[in-house]
Amino acid sequence: MKIKKISCLILISLAIGLSQPILFKNSQRLLAQNQTDCSQVTLAFDDGLESVYSLAAPALKAHGFPATAYVYTQAQNEEYDGYLDWTEVVSLQNNFGLEIGSHGYSHGNLTEISLAAAKNELERVKNDLISHNIKVESFASPFGAYNYQVLKYAAGLYASHRTAWSGLNNQPAEAYYLKAVAADDLSLDQIKGLVNQAKQTNGWLILYFHGLTEDPTVPKGYFYQFNDFQQILDYLKNQNSKVVTVSAGLSAVCPASTYGPNRVVNGDFEDNLNFNSAELTWYSPLDDQESIEKAPWGHSAEVVGDVSFVAGRNGNAVSFTDLSWSPDYIALPAYQVINPKQGAVVFWYQPNYDHTENVEARFFEADADCCEFEFNHDPAGFLYFKIEALKNNAIIVPVSNYSWHKGEWVKLEVRWHESDYMAVYVNDQQVGLLGRDNTGKIYGRLPDFTDHYLGSVLAIGSAGSRGKINGAMDDFMIFKSADYQLPSDAHQADFWTKNPKTEVKITNTSSGRTAQIIGGADQKMIATFGIPVQPGNTYELSAAFKVTGYSAGDASVWVAEFDQNYHYLGGQWLGGFTYDFIGRRYFRYTPNPNVNLAEIYFLTHENAKMTMNIDDVELKKIQQP
Ligand SMILES: [Zn+2]
C-alpha cells in the first residue's frame, strides 16, 4: 500500500515538471505509462463461492494481482455446498494476498428487514471474520441494497461500502458509495473497454464477479468463464494496469479524475455556468409536500421574496415571517388546477402567533384580477374559508372560532363536492360546512358552483398586496377529488426525519436563484418532490456547484425512488463532493424497476464542513448510451 502511495506521488511530481524522478521499487513499470495515469482496477468476488479459492486465487497469484472477496459468513458457519469454508477464507487472506470483505451475515436485503436486524447482520459477519483473524475493512451491501440508516450504521463498522451502482469511480473516490461494474454479462471486449476508459480518465474500475467456471456450457451470468477471466488478467498485465484491493484503492493518492466533468478553476461561479440550460427556478420550497394529482414538473413552486425554511412536520416547511405588504410567496407555475366540481385542499400550518394576538393571515389566493381562493384568519382570530367567484359572488364557509397556539402544527383541509357540500376541517374535525351533511341535513345554502371560479391557485403565502401570513406551511396538497386518499406513508423515507433543522438559503444571482447549504452537525438538504420518471429511460441531471471551505464530511446528490403510489422503494446515489469544486456536473440516472416518481436531493451529510451552492438544476431524458 505504501509503495503505491509513493508511486502516485512520483507521478504528481512529474506532472508538475520536477526533473529526474527517483526510481523506487516498482516505478519502472509506472514510468512506462502515461505519466498522469493513476487509474486503478479492482477485481472483486461476491458471495464467497468455492471457485474463488479453486480457480480465481491461483490465477491471480500467477499474475501477481490482489483482489477483494466479499463473503457472507453464514455460508461458512453452516458449511454451504459450493461455498468457501473457513480454512479457505483464511488462506485467501494469508496465502494469496486477497482482502476479505463483508457481504452481510446471511446475504439478506438489509433494507427489507428491521434496522435492528440489519445492524445485527452487519455486526455478526464482522465479528465472525475478526474471530478468524481476518482483517475486515470493506463492506458490500447484498444486492446493492442500502438506505440511509443502514449505511450510517455500516460506516461505523467498515471503512468503505461498495454499491451495485454501475460505473467507474472518480478519484478521489467516495468511500461509502463506491460504484462497481458487474462482470456477469459482460464480454471480454466490453471489460477491456472499461479498463481502457479507466486509464484514459484516471478512474477506478471495480469489476465484480461471483463464481468462475471451467464448464463452457454454463451460460454467462452468475458464473463467469474461467478462460475469459484469465484473459482479463493477461490484458491487465499487458496494459500495466494498477490492480488493487478495495482498501488499497481507497488509500491511493491520485490527481483528480477527468472522467465526467472537468474541474473549473476560475473562481467566478456565475461566469462558468452554462446559460443554455434551464435557469434555476428553484423548484422545491415545500420540499416534502406531495400531491397525488401530478403533472410533469407541474408541482414545482417558485420562491418569490423573503421565504425561508424552518423545521417542518417532516423535513422542511416554508416560513413566511415578513408581515409587510411586500410579495413574499411560493408561486405554483402553471397554477395548480382546481377541479370546480369536486376536490380538496389540504395543508399544515404552524402559526407564529397566538390566538390572542391581532394578526391577519391569508394562506393562498388565485389570480388577483379575478377570484380569491383563500383560507383566512382575520384580525379578530376568526378562521374562515372563502372562494370568491366572478362578480364577487363569494362562497364563504365560516368556521367556528379556532384558537391558534403559537408553534403548534394544525392540519387545515377543505373539501367540496358540487351541489352537495363544502366543508372545512381543522385537525380532521369538521368545523365548518355549507350544504348537506352525510345524513342529508342542510347547513346553509350552497350556491351554484358553476358561478364560481375554482380554476387555480396562484400563490401560497403572502401573495401580492392581498394576503399575508406569519407562520410556516408544510405538505400542501391539492386533490381533484373530494374523496381522496392521503398517501399516508409518503414520509417514511428515513432521511426525511433525519434533520429537523434543515436550513437552506435561497439567494438571487444574476442567473436566477441559488440554493446554499452550509454543512453542519445535522444533515441538511434541499429536494424536489415527485418527478415522474420511467424505468428503461436514462436521465441526465446537471447542476452548477460551488463547493468551498471544504474540510470534512461529504455532500451528495441523491435520488429517492417511489412507486406510483408514492411508496418509497430505495435510493440511488449519483455523486458528491469531498473537496472544493466549482463548475457544472452531470450525473446519469437510470430509474430502478417499478419506479414512477423520483425526488432529487442535494444534501450535506452530518458533520460536513463545507458550503455548497447549487444552481441551474436540470433533469432531462437522454438517449441510452
Ligand atoms: Zn451478493
Automatic annotation (TrEMBL):
SUPFAM superfamilies for the chain: Concanavalin A-like lectins/glucanases, Glycoside hydrolase/deacetylase
Entries under CDD domains matching the protein: CE4_DAC_u1_6s (cd10970)
Gene Ontology terms describing biological process: carbohydrate metabolic process
Domain NodB homology residues, every copy: 39-244
Q: Where is this protein found? A: Secreted
* Main location group: secreted
Is-annotated flag, keyword Lipoprotein?
no
State any single GO MF term.
hydrolase activity, acting on carbon-nitrogen (but not peptide) bonds
- Keywords noted in UniProt: Signal
Superkingdom per UniProt: Bacteria
Entry GO CC:
extracellular region
- Protein name stated in the entry: NodB homology domain-containing protein
Give the species this sequence originates from: Candidatus Kuenenbacteria bacterium RIFCSPLOWO2_02_FULL_42_16
Upper lineage ranks? Answer: Bacteria, Candidatus Kueneniibacteriota
